[in-house]
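Quick question about two entries, pasted in order.
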Amino acid sequence: MSVERLHFEPGRVCYEWRLVTEHVVRYAFAAALCRGRRVLDVACGEGYGSYMLAQAGATAVVGLDVDAAAIATAESRFAAPGVRYLVGDATNLAGVLATEPPFDVVVSFETIEHVAVVELFLDGIRAVLAPDGIAIVSAPNEPGPPNHDSANPFHRRTFTFEQFRTLTQRHLGPARRWYFGTPLQGMVLAEAGSSLLLNDRSDLSLMLEGRRCDESLLLPAQRNLRVGEADCAFFVGVWGAEGGVSIAGSPAATAGILEPWAAVEWFRAENARLLRERETPASTTRQGADIRSRMLADSVADLRRAALLDKARLETAEAALGKAQDAAEAARRTEVARALQVARTEAELRAEVARLAVEARTIGARLKVIETSRGWRLVQAYARLLTRPVAGWPLRRLRRMFGGT
């Protein structure tokens, strides 16, 4: 894998399921052919693939890449027993590995499109491979003229499947099998709460935390999505052995998968509609325009009627509101007048009470004056005498004689 695509830099956000599964599936495919064998991984990048092959059972793995920084990362991040990393040019394998014994397996994924001289690269693989060894080489499917510049600035050339097959077999001999790598659609069934489903990390090292599936079944491609040499993502050729079917997948939320399909269906329907309009005769188009014009005129008339009706409703509501406000104001005024009358009555009562109090005090004062006078004392003595049994009888008789009571 080329170092410009993936990096294991701390904190860098670079885990993206489609790209990761594309790279992992190639090493998963090679793993079964590398068990118990000595392996060379050409253009190993930062070394995750070499590490995966060693973990899968290769007895020894040498990872080689022209980028010294990538090899330094590999040595610090993916060091493991039986794994060594070397800096070297893929077009000079025989020279770089002159002291190494032949390898049982040579893998080189997505390298052929990067090298300056393809012939030196392929001849070098043959030179370092044991006579009965296995070679596994891949290339991206980027159709175009031979040696055509790729859209990827790091790719020196593009390949169709036929170009790739012809060139590699010219230097490596007839391949045992050819394989196509392609995206996968399907379903996964995993335990609720599994870290496979609820991952919240984004570092690229997640690609090494995949799990083997207990029960898996690969179904045939849908008819309109069948995969051929023009439709796949990359090609893999195998010399000296036969591989199997390999799958690398990543769970995805249902909405995230269905949304692009819904968008595609909408675009197809919209495109079909536009094509129909373009192919419709002018007379039909004018007729349709007239119909749309009449429909718009009817809509405008409806809106005007609705506006008039709304205006009448508004005027009625405003009149009712005015009446309600007038009634409320009259009630308020009546209440204010009543309150003022009550206030005046209360004031008058308080004044009358004050007057009576003054009058009562005046009368009381007069009574005190009378009670302290000599005449009052004589009246009191007369009244007491009048009530006496002996002395009072003549007095009472005299009162009756002179008209008293």
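Here is the second entry:
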Amino acid sequence: MVGIDQARPIIQQALDLGITYFDTANQYSNGRSEEIIGEVLKEHRDEVFFGTKVFFPMGSGVNERGLSRIHLTQQIQDSLKRLQTDYIDLYHTHRWDDTTPIEETLRTLDNLVHQGKVRYLGTSSMYAWQFAKALWTSDKHGLARFETMENHYNLVYREEEREMIPFCQDQKIWITP
């Protein structure tokens, strides 16, 4: 883990090179990644786009993990505080949650969008059938949809070309590998 003093020149160089999208997660270094990004970029908030994720445990309690209403509601507040901002540009669910009904997750995320805490929704690392189920549920209930898929895709792992990428193309979903 790099400290803030080591991160500052790296982030400044990224800005100088025209990079404006900064992606992190609440779980990275137990929130420290969000704190560093928030501190270093607070003077540039109107010029940058923040993406962060939620899912993995942030404590030992049963409600401190996953995509339940209680966890999402707590974690958005914590992420906003650590990032020193009033809103998250792109809020990703980091994984599929088998223990929480997808409708509960999507209703909670929709509320965060309507409250102005989140501008866009994204997701990552799931099967195409799970993603289809999530989009179908959003459409059925008139809820905010996922607009991006952060999938596992690189020169070595190309399985996403079989179903996920064509599905995202069909649904007009941005892919952020």
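Reply: The two ends are 23 Å apart (CA to CA). Helices lie at 4-16, 32-41, 69-83, 102-114, 128-141, 164-171. Hope that helps.
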